[in-house]
Every structure is written in structure tokens, then in C-alpha cells.
Amino acid sequence: MTTVIDAEGAVLGRLASTVASRALDGEEIAVVNAEEIVVSGDPDEVAENYRARDEEKSDRGPLHPKRPDGIAKRTVRGMLPYKRQRGKEALGRVKFYIGVPAEYEDSEHETPDDTVEDIAKGGYVTLDEVSRRIGANVTW
């Protein structure tokens, strides 16, 4: 059975660590509304950090995603031993979706413990806005 997590208002790092540990425990996880995940910090600085990652690459890589679901999955990957078999299998059990796909509309959604209300005064920006600022082809 797949666990469905509604990521609206969830903090990226906290959500990613929870998803990574649960995936390592063998749980199948689908995260919906990935575009509504927030990154804490000044919006301009956060977008500039993601843009700088993309600009420093060569033709061969590393390749950094620009879509919200790709950014979130890459963050989870960084918290897994993805070069080992155990980590590869765990990463395969994690799916991120923009919006809510039809197959998960009727299922019960979990909400993360840490949301945007728990962030201090520093500000935040959604992954949707980050993707738009770094030049993603907005098709969602």
C-alpha cells in the first residue's frame, strides 16, 4: 500500500528527511502537490542558490532539475545512500507529483508535522516560484 503525503506548505528539508527515512524502512511513498513545498529563507537568495547550481555545470553534469517535483526528489536523493543497492531501491519507492493525480484523489492524505507555520521570521518561497525563477519550462 502506498502512503500519500500532501506536501502543501511542508518545509523541503524536513519533508525530505522524513520521506527518506520512511523509504529506507521499505515504505512506498507518493508525495502530491510538490509545487507547494516551501524552502525557508529569503526568496531571492534561495532562487539565486538554485540558479547558481545550474549555471556551474558542464555538458556532462551534474544535472540539476528545474521542475518542483525534480527538485524535491533530488533533495530526497541527497539524504539516501543512492549509490548502494539499498538506497537505489529506497529512491525507487518515492514518487513526487505536481498536483494530485487521479489515482490518489480518493485516497487519504497524510500531512507533514512541520509546515510553513513553523518557520521563523526569515521568510520562505515555494518550489513553484523557485522553478519559475530558474527558468523551468512551466507546463504544470
Please supply descriptive tags for the structure shown above.
single chain, 140 residues, alpha/beta, Ribosomal Protein L13p, Chain: A, four-stranded parallel beta sheet, two-stranded antiparallel ribbon, 6 strands, globular
Textual characterization of the structure:
- With 140 residues, the chain is an alpha/beta fold.
- The chain has a single domain, classed as Ribosomal Protein L13p, Chain: A (Alpha-Beta Complex), CATH 3.90.1180.
- The chain has helices at 12-24, 43-55, 68-77, 85-92, 127-133; strands at residues 2-6, 28-32, 38-40, 94-96, 109-110, 124-126.
- The longest helix has 13 residues, at 12-24.
Furnish the topology, listing elements before pairings.
Elements: E1 2-6, H1 12-24, E2 28-32, E3 38-40, H2 43-55, H3 68-77, H4 85-92, E4 94-96, E5 109-110, E6 124-126, H5 127-133
Parallel strand pairs: 1-2, 1-5, 2-4
Antiparallel strand pairs: 3-6
Helix pairs in contact: 1-3, 2-5, 3-5
Strand fraction: 15-25%
Helix content: 25-40%
CATH superfamily assignment? Answer: Ribosomal protein L13
CATH architecture: Alpha-Beta Complex
- Broad shape: globular
CATH class assignment: Alpha Beta
Spatial arrangement of strands, main beta sheet? 4-2-1-5
Number of domains: 1
**Coarse structural class:** alpha/beta
User: How far apart are the first and last residues' alpha carbons, in Å?
Assistant: 27 Å
Cα-atom Rg, whole angstroms? Answer: 15 Å
